[in-house]
Amino acid sequence: MELIPVYLAFILILSIFLGFELISKVPATLHTPLMSGANAISGITIVGALLAAGTDGPSWLATALGAVAVFFATVNVVGGYLVTDRMLGMFKKKPDDPA
Questions:
Q1: Average per-residue pLDDT for the chain
Q2: What DSSP character marks residue 42?
């Protein structure tokens, strides 16, 4: 039996627990800016997804999964910018209503 899949599964499970512990320690006031920044930085995944979709992979499945990855990475980045815009909008002063 090859041990590489076992090591990869161990790393995946360990990273899930580590990520959960780190995110649970972040105060609520910093959670939204942290997630907005992380979503903006995750634009790098679009580059990887484009490379996966654009290469002539070993099968059509690899190209299809690359195209799906491009879609989801784009949704992630756009959502990150929308959340950031909404968050920054909360800090703008509202004009006085002369009613």
A1: 83
A2: T
